[in-house]
């Protein structure tokens, strides 16, 4: 572990919280010190849930370490079962509490509860949040799901959606509707919305739909091995992937029918005059591997963009990401350090970023538009409106998600033409970032930047650089400085600027 201002994934017990919070009738007893008790903040503020997460903490303090912290855990378990009357409980320790080795699972199992007690062994210092969610859901399915008679009609389970997931609520609704259009009923959706009683009857389905491999693949593999339930391998993000998903479902359920595409608008929109001027825009993608791989296909094949770089933070899926990167001819970036990501984006100098909440901040610093396509995200990415990214309606949403930031960038370019006006000069800031117009004065007029690495921009070159659209200006500055440095030029004038432009245009 290392100290960081930002982390793409929390510790694994946060993944367990996501599973518990998504379910009903399940309670999570977490052995944790005061300070690790932030579930309320995560789920009620960021996700804007209308109820508190079902988590009980022991919340021991420093003074308790000299006594028996195991007693605190037993008391917390008894109080949670008596107060919340759950159908089952899961028990575990936070990363800090793991160090005192109290064995919460063993203690809870010996307490004689008349409900299932599922212990979680989550290695906090080796694994992270997505692993914690995947392992927790697997342990719940392993403990509760039992062989049962298949349903008379062909049904499926939807696996993987959790609390605090990126658009999980709306994705589930969209895919459930798509399956219904095919004549296939959903037996159980889990963990999101499922109870322990629902988990018991998962074996009644004929196959499983795996929407989120990061949080549901272990359970899907278990069901395939234990109950003979095959599971889908295609994530239905985008038009092409959704059609591939439908074809995969038709192989598992040959009597099903093809769903209607009447509401699909992305293909026509992306071929329209309003969109073709965006063709060829270079995009950099970063997030969880499943969303990045799926969105790269959408960006290239359905929007006409060029993939300039791609990467993921979850190392468990590094192999799949590397395979995809090879297909797009880019170097894969596997890291959980946002500074590495920022350096890679700055070097690639794309016209757009598709990433997480962190890449949104990186984009603001670099002056590059960004659309959020993956967790981790903040409150603005849990919209009140229906906004899936899966299925055919999800494809329509993706068109807006990818195009609107670029359209706003072009609008800024038009505003740049009037940059000498009071409202539109450079110091006013981009209008779509909420910048307030500021009057230009001698004190606030732009000054040439301080010399860097012994390269000085002359005033005339600075004025000429400002004629370049703002969204490619940083790249033009970097290329010119690199050109000058290679030739030993210490002062950049207008001639150097245009020589560099001609050099990089070849």
Please characterize this protein's 3D structure.
- There is one protein chain.
- The protein has 506 residues and is α/β, with parallel strands linked by helices.
- It is 43% helix and 12% strand.
- The protein has four domains: 12-128, Nitrogenase molybdenum iron protein domain (Rossmann fold, 3-Layer(aba) Sandwich); 155-252, Rossmann fold, CATH 3.40.50.1980; 266-413, 3-Layer(aba) Sandwich (Rossmann fold); 447-505, Orthogonal Bundle (Helicase, Ruva Protein, domain 3), CATH 1.10.8.
- The protein has 19 helices and 14 strands.
- The strands form four sheets. It has a five-stranded parallel beta sheet, sandwiched between helices. Strands 2-1-3-4 form a four-stranded parallel beta sheet, sandwiched between helices.
- Helix 1 (12-22) packs across helix 5, helix 12 (289-302) runs parallel beside helix 13 (318-328) and helix 14 (338-348) packs across helix 15 (357-366).
- The longest helix has 26 residues, at 391-416.
- The protein is globular and about 85 Å long.
- The protein starts with 11 loop residues before the first helix and ends with a helix.
- Its cofactor is [4Fe-4S] cluster.
- GO terms for molecular function: 4 iron, 4 sulfur cluster binding; ATP binding; metal ion binding; oxidoreductase activity, acting on iron-sulfur proteins as donors; oxidoreductase activity, acting on the CH-CH group of donors, iron-sulfur protein as acceptor.
- Keywords: 4Fe-4S, ATP-binding, Bacteriochlorophyll biosynthesis, Chlorophyll biosynthesis, Iron, Iron-sulfur, Metal-binding, Nucleotide-binding, Oxidoreductase, Photosynthesis.
């Amino acid at each position: 572990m290392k100290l960081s201002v930002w982390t793409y994934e929390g510790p694994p017990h946060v993944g367990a919280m996501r599973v518990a919070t998504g379910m009903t009738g399940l309670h999570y007893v977490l052995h944790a010190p005061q300070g690790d008790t932030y579930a309320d903040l995560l789920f009620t503020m960021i996700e804007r849930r209308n109820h508190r997460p079902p988590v009980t903490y022991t919340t021991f303090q420093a003074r308790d370490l000299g006594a028996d912290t195991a007693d605190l855990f037993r008391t917390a378990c008894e109080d949670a079962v008596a107060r919340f009357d759950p159908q089952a409980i899961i028990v575990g320790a936070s990363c800090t509490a793991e160090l005192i080795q109290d064995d919460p699972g063993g203690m809870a199992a010996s307490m004689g509860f008349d409900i299932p007690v599922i212990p979680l062994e989550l290695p906090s210092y080796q694994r992270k949040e997505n692993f914690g969610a995947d392992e927790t859901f697997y342990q719940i399915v392993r403990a509760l799901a039992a062989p049962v008679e298949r349903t008379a009609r062909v049904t499926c389970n939807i696996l993987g959606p959790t609390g605090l997931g990126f658009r999980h609520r709306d994705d589930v609704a969209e895919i459930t509707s798509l399956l219904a259009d095919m004549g296939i009923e959903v037996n159980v959706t889990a963990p999101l919305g499922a109870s322990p009683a629902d988990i018991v009857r998962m074996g009644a389905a004929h196959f499983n739909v795996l929407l989120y491999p990061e949080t549901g693949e272990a359970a899907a593999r278990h069901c395939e091995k234990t109950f003979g339930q095959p599971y889908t391998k295609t994530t239905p993000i985008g038009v092409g992937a959704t059609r591939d998903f439908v074809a995969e479902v038709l192989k598992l359920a040959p009597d099903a029918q093809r769903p209607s595409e009447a509401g699909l608008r992305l293909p026509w929109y992306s071929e329209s005059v309003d969109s073709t001027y965006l063709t060829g825009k270079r995009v950099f993608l970063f997030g969880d591997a499943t969303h990045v791989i799926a969105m790269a296909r959408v960006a290239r094949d359905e929007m006409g963009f060029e993939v300039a770089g791609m990467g993921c933070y979850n190392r468990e899926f590094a192999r799949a990401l590397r395979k995809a990167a090879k297909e797009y001819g880019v170097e894969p970036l596997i890291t959980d350090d946002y500074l590495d990501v920022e350096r890679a984006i700055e070097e690639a100098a794309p016209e757009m970023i598709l990433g997480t909440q962190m890449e949104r901040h990186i984009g603001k610093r670099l002056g590059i538009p960004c659309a959020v396509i993956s967790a981790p995200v903040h409150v603005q990415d849990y919209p009140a409106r229906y906004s899936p990214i899966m299925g055919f309606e999800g494809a329509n949403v993706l068109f807006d998600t990818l195009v609107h930031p670029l359209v706003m960038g072009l609008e800024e370019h038009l505003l740049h033409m009037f940059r000498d006006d009071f409202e539109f000069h450079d110091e006013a800031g981009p209008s779509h970032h909420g910048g307030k117009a500021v009057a230009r004065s001698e004190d606030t007029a732009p000054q040439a930047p301080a010399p860097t690495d012994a390269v000085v921009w002359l005033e005339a070159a600075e004025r000429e650089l400002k004629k370049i659209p703002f969204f490619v200006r940083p790249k033009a500055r970097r290329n010119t400085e690199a050109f000058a440095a290679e030739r030993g030029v210490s002062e950049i004038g207008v001639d150097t600027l245009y020589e560099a432009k001609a050099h990089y245009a070849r």
